[in-house]
């Protein structure tokens, strides 16, 4: 049994599609950035104490590309949104611990922490809505 997401106001299906496309594209771009800057990001991950930093950068980049494209297209939305949420849940306090860095780095780390927190909220919304069929979605999923 499949339940469809039905919005009451006209045009909200399109607004939801645009929101998915924007959110998914930004997340996928973040993942692509992991691959384009793997050496730089590996150094940062190593500095932050991540075990197997290069593997972590590449693996998390894959999670973000898959998650972003999956949210945008509506393909495996539960897994896609879950991958993004998991990445943000782990990486936000680990890499953007503004409370534990020197004062000259605190503002930048806090900005990144808050950006990731907002994105985590968005990922959780898409995860919560992933149990229903999304309008204008490819519609391939586990449920």
UniProtKB/TrEMBL annotation:
It holds the Pfam family DoxX. GO terms for cellular component: membrane. Its main location: membrane. It comes from Haloferax marinum. This is DoxX family membrane protein. It is a multi-pass membrane protein. Keywords: Membrane, Transmembrane, Transmembrane helix. The keyword Transmembrane applies. The chain crosses the membrane at residues 14-36, 57-76, 82-101, 113-137. It is found in: Membrane.
